[in-house]
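FORM 7B: Structural annotation worksheet

SECTION A. Query
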Amino acid sequence: MTTGSFTDWSGNLLDIGPLYPFVGWEVFMVLLGFIFWIGWHILQIRAENSQLENEASQLRQAGSLQKAINSERVIDRL
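SECTION B. Predicted structure
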């Protein structure tokens, strides 16, 4: 990777060399980012579902799930 000073851009850019690191890795990095993104969503959904199920089971055991549902206030839209 060249970071030197340039006085003239009229030459062949291929002679200068790569202007940024990891040239040629673009497709691999996009695929890696996509896999990470989808994997994070899957792990997040599993964690949230587990937490929700734990909270609901605690409310069921105490017999207060129905009370919690009934105590919810619904705001009527105008």
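SECTION C. Observations
Residues 24-70 form one domain. The first helix runs from residue 13 to 16.

SECTION D. Sign-off
Analyst initials: ____
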